[in-house]
Amino acid sequence: MPRMNDYLPKDELEPEKDPKRPSNMRLGIWLVVGAIGLYLVVSGIWGLVTGG
């Protein structure tokens, strides 16, 4: 027995992509860069607090 949505084109079954949403690759790059920046800031503050 065919399913209900078998007769619809594939592009009608998939939700539309939001054009304002950044790609997954860009999100991954920002995540890595943000983590490195956070590490540098925290290690700098830790160095100032411990005096060395």
Describe the protein in words.
This protein has 52 residues and is mainly α. It has helices spanning 10-13, 24-50. Helices cover 60% and strands 0% of the residues. The longest helix has 27 residues, at 24-50. The protein is rod-shaped, with a radius of gyration of 23 Å. The termini are far apart.
How is the secondary structure organized here?
Blueprint (H helix, E strand, L loop, with lengths): L9 H4 L10 H27 L2
Radius of gyration: 23 Å
Approximate helicity band: 55-70%
Taking pLDDT < 50 over at least 5 consecutive residues as the criterion, the unreliable ranges are none
Total strands: 0
Query: Which H/E pattern describes the elements?
Result: HH
Number of alpha- plus pi-helical segments: 2
In whole angstroms, the N-to-C terminal distance is: 73 Å
- Rounded mean pLDDT is 84
Large-scale geometry: rod-shaped
Strand content: under 5%
Report on the biggest sheet: none
What structural class do helix, strand and pairing data support?
Answer: mainly alpha
Task: List descriptors.
mainly alpha; rod-shaped; 52 residues
Task: Give a brief rundown of this model.
The protein is mostly helical and 52 residues long. It has helices spanning 10-13, 24-50.
